[in-house]
Every structure is written in C-alpha cells, then in structure tokens.
Specification:
Number of helices: 11
Shape: globular
Structural class: alpha/beta
Helix content: 40-55%
Bound molecules: S-adenosylmethionine
Distance between the termini: 59 Å
Strand content: 15-25%
Largest sheet: 7 strands, mixed
Radius of gyration: 20 Å
C-alpha cells in the first residue's frame, strides 16, 4: 500500500472537501490548505483502512455516511485554546462587568454565561475560576460551553488537562487551588466543574433554545466563517444576550460593519461589544 503522505489529493477532491467542510460546519478553507487536509485526515484514512484521502472522498461521495461525514468536518476544526487567553478580557470582566452585574442582580444572584466555541474548555473554566476568585461562589451561576466538535466537547467535560496545557496561561496559585493531580495530568475540582456544562452546538443553528446570557464569548471562531455566516451567527448571539450584555471576540476579529446591534467599547485594553 502506498504511504499516505505520498498520495496527493486530486484537485476535484480538494474542492469536494472544501465544500464538505463548509456545508457541515461553515468553515472556509482557502486554496492553499492541502497540508492541513493531509495531516488532519490521515488518522481517519488509517482508521477506516483506506489507502489515501482520495479513497476517503470516494467513500464520502458514495455513502454520505453521517458518522464519517462529521468526523471529517470535526477533524478540520482548529481547536487551539488555553487558560486566560487574552487576559485583558478577564480583567475587563473583573473590573467592569462583574461589579455592574453584582449590583443589578443582587436580588436573584443569577448569572448566565456562554463560551460559544469552547473547544477543550479552558475558556469556560477560566471564567468559572475568575467568578470564584471574585467571591461569587454562592451565586446561581451557569456557564454553557459549546462547540461543533463532539471530540473537544468530550475532553472539555472531562476537565482533565496535561501539564503542558496548565503551563499555558494558568497562574500557579489557581492550579494549586482548583486542580488535583490525576496521574501525570491535572483534574479540575468539582466546585469548578459543577459551574460549567458542555454540549455540541453548531453556531449556525437557531439559538432560541439555549437561553439568555449576560456574557457570550465568541472568540477565535468568526475568522473561519464567511461574511454571511458571520452575520447570521452574530444575529443569533445578539438574540440571546440581555440588553447591555457583553460579547467578546478574538483579538484579530471584528464585528464592525457586520452587525449594528452591538456597540463597540474599550474597557481597559480590551474591546467589548455591548448588546444595544
Ligand atoms: C480556535 S478554537 C477557539 C477556542 C476558544 N474560543 C478560544 O478562543 O480559545 C475554535 C473552535 O471553534 C469551533 N467551531 C468551528 N466551527 C464551528 C461551528 N460552526 N459551530 C460551533 N463551533 C465551531 C471549533 O471546533 C474550535 O474548537
């Protein structure tokens, strides 16, 4: 059997895969991403006992098998994330959003947050730790973490991280306070895990069923979408934010000109989008 790396993806199959990933997850992959398909789809090719990505495409075209279709799209998601990514966002939450919510919600003590492309969960758990550090442990708090990929959602639910993952961004005192050793890994404790639940959600779907939120993280996912998908996703997010609620996007992303129902504001060195 020829080695996987030596079999080039035929151009018609490259186009087929681009269309497939776009229709499954809304992700736009440009013309020069052959290496990405090759490295990320190789394990699926191997698992299915196929000879090459071209064989995988033939299988997809012939059967449209849901499980394989989805695993191909999931494999093409980029799941890069880490604790306290963009610390200025968490500073803004601590200094500006939480004091306001504390006052506004002092009767119900109820707060709702959504990490909308949560990947392996570090974003949602970072928020949980910030809320505990701010003394909100006795409030009724729910954080929803959601992602298209069931693979990362499963990892997020487990709340278990490798040494290299906790070394990225997590301050040592928080590691000691909120994690327990689990063999060579680190397990988040029950107090933090109870605040967060994870599920698979495709951001292109209607969000009416997910509830209403005080804050939505939609960070480092809009970059993968085209303008139409972006517009639709932002409209749905606006629909589930309380008036005055915040949306945070990644450092290289902007909603300027895409949705006028958000007001852009600077809080410290962070940019936040406030639901009008
Ligand atoms: C780069 S990660 C961002 C993780 C985290 N928000 C952060 O900023 O650190 C992007 C995530 O978006 C998810 N994603 C891609 N398309 C999606 C879609 N249509 N619906 C929901 N999640 C999606 C991917 O699976 C991936 O885990």
């Amino acid at each position: 059997m020829p080695k996987q790396a030596s079999v080039e993806i035929r151009e018609e199959n490259y186009k087929f895969l681009q269309r497939h990933v776009y229709s499954q997850a809304g992700i736009v992959l440009e013309e020069d991403k052959h290496y990405l398909f090759e490295t990320r789809l190789a394990p699926i090719v191997q698992e299915l006992g196929l000879g090459s990505i071209n064989d995988l495409c033939a299988l997809l075209k012939a059967t449209r098998e849901e499980k394989v279709s989805r695993s191909v799209a999931e494999a093409m998601t980029t799941n890069e994330t880490y604790f306290f990514r963009d610390p200025s966002h968490f500073e803004a939450i601590r200094k500006e959003l939480l004091p306001r919510l504390r006052a506004e919600r002092k009767d119900t003590k109820r707060l709702r947050f959504w990490s909308a492309a949560s990947s392996t969960g570090q974003e949602a758990y970072t928020l949980a730790m910030v809320l505990l550090e701010e003394g909100l442990g006795d409030w009724d708090i729910q954080i929803l973490g959601a992602d298209y990929s069931s693979r990362v959602v499963e990892r997020a639910r487990a709340g278990k991280y490798h040494q290299i993952e906790v070394d990225r961004g997590l301050p040592a005192p928080l590691l000691i306070k909120y994690f327990e050793r689990s063999g060579v890994d680190w397990q988040l404790n029950e107090q933090v895990r109870r605040m967060v639940r994870f599920q698979t959600i495709d951001l292109r779907e209607s969000m009416r069923a997910v509830g209403m939120f005080d804050l939505v993280f939609c960070r480092n996912v809009l970059i993968y979408f085209d303008a139409d998908t972006k517009r639709k996703v932002l409209k749905e997010i606006r629909g589930v934010l309380f008036r005055g609620g915040w949306m945070l996007v990644g450092g290289t992303e902007t909603v300027f000109g895409v949705d006028e129902r958000f007001e852009r504001r600077n809080v410290g060195s962070a940019t936040v989008y406030v639901a009008r």
